[in-house]
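Bit of a strange request maybe. I'm writing a small parser for structure token strings and I need a real example to test against, not something I typed by hand. Could someone generate the tokens for this chain?
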Amino acid sequence: MKQDVLVRRLIKRPGRGLAGAVALAALLAATAPALAQQQSPVLDALVESGDLPPVAERLPANPQVVDGPSPGRYGGTWRMGMRGGGDNGLIVKTIAYEGLVRYDHEWKGVLPNLAESWEASADAKEYTFKLRDGVKWSDGTPFTTEDIAFAVEMFQDPDYAASSWIDNVNNPVQLEVIDPLTFKFKFDKPNGMLLETMASVDGAQITSLQKKYCSQFHPTYNENAAAEAQAKGFASWALYLQDRCAWGWETIRFSNPDLPLLYPWVIETPLTANAARVTWKRNPYYWKVDSQGNQLPYIDNVDMRVSESIEELTLLALNGEIDFQERHIATNVNKPLFFDGQEQGDYHLGEVIPSASNTLVLQLNFNHDDPVKRELYQNRDFRVGISQALDRQEIVDVVFTGQGEPFQVAPRPESAFYDEELAKQYTEFNPEEAIKRFEAAGLTETNGDGIRLMSNGQPVKITIDVISALRPEWIDILEIMQLQLASVGVAIEINNIDRTLFYEKRPSNDFDAQVWAGDGGIEALQEPRYYFPYSDESVWAYRWAQWFQGTRPEIAEEPADWAKQQMDLYNQVRASSDPEQRADLFRQILAITKEQFPVIGVSLMPNSYSIVRNNLMNVPDSMFNAWLFPTPAPMDPVTWYFE
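Reply from user aminoacidic:
Good idea to test on real output. This should exercise your parser:
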């Protein structure tokens, strides 16, 4: 039975937990049979010439064993499309998901990866990890605790403003190196969700920097670093180091083909501002094998066509020139085209279950500088009134061709935290009740245009910031909402802006409202931005979130008592290493969310789809899609192959 399957089953089994999973992983590591190790034929000549060591010398003593539904064969190029030169997300979601631990396919358990085992203290303040013995970077250099220590040092370097769980100002990592393969993370405060954090895309941050290569750009290790940076045209060594190595998964990281990596493929044609395509070739030192001892990945190369045009990427897919993709092209508008073009394009559609709970989340600014608007936006009756004035079924029918259903911002039905009452409250179209709610909020007078007047005599007019370039359907939704709300006396103005300005307006507090999709539909515990003021993405109470995070005290505001209660509960979540206790605490947070109703949703994000060429094998028929669960990377594309 496969190692990852055994570990996953043990993690899920009632009465067992992390200790049991670690024990099994260690047992499998000790008893794994010797494998008849094999490699891709494209590497044979390099081995025969002596330019590359034999595969047995390139693999670790205990390689990660990963199997697809069927044994694969070597060869081929995986083709996909990149949206512009800044689309690092596509790389993260296909190639760069290699942390110490990883998620299983079902997004329920955490599995070993670069770390073959771990132990956690009962108070969740200490985690001890053991690396796989013999893992090598793509240049053949061993991956050891020296690299972990260097990554921690760089993320916590005051000359570079990183932002991660490693340098979290509220609970930064403290590292104790025990030996070349063993180290311990220590925290002043409990960090009960560390494994989930490290299994997400954020886990790649600790495994992104090779000390041997990257230290040459740092003055601690090279006294000439500043002069060398200046000679290369950089104002500081930190900027030169960032250009050569970068931290985590910054876009610039994928522009340096000399950078040693731990990924299944390494950079061949780098990502640059003018690149027409970004290409990758197999990593000869990749440290995973199938159960027959074949070194992974099966596919030799990856080719990412760079285009600013979604239409061009769509045409490539219709013509059979994309082998697998859902990012960018899997829109509602495109679905009929892709459905009808399956035979001609020699592809089929896979099911993609989004993590997002909602197609659009309306976030009114609770911390508005205008005291009248602040009071109104914080009034629950006003928010309920807006919700009840929306004919969501009309939006679903017109914008989403009937796909989806009226839904608030709540955990999805697939989530363990699904609560039908929370998901469905105030979703019924009821303009008469909406008017009663507005009047209860003090909006009893109207002007000559029928728009309700606030306590200062000014009409209720909400300017809503939106980025149509991200999701064109947001404009369509807002235009329908504009008509529906006007009929009950609330005016909205649609302010379509670029992403940079969209984010800049948050700390300056220069907005009435903003919209986004409903993140946290499945990964609710990790992404509770809409359930309480949790992060910078909690736009509805941005300054309350700063109070919680402690990162921008100059703009932080003390939250309402109910929000502080949620924050206290979430701190207890973080302090617990018991999944059942964390779940119980989080349900208490959601109960307060249900009562306070802070943000307004429109409809359940409908299932999406992927384009899968018919000769690409081992691709799952269905998969989740999220940022923290970076589809399709957790579904093991290293086991995919061309028939």
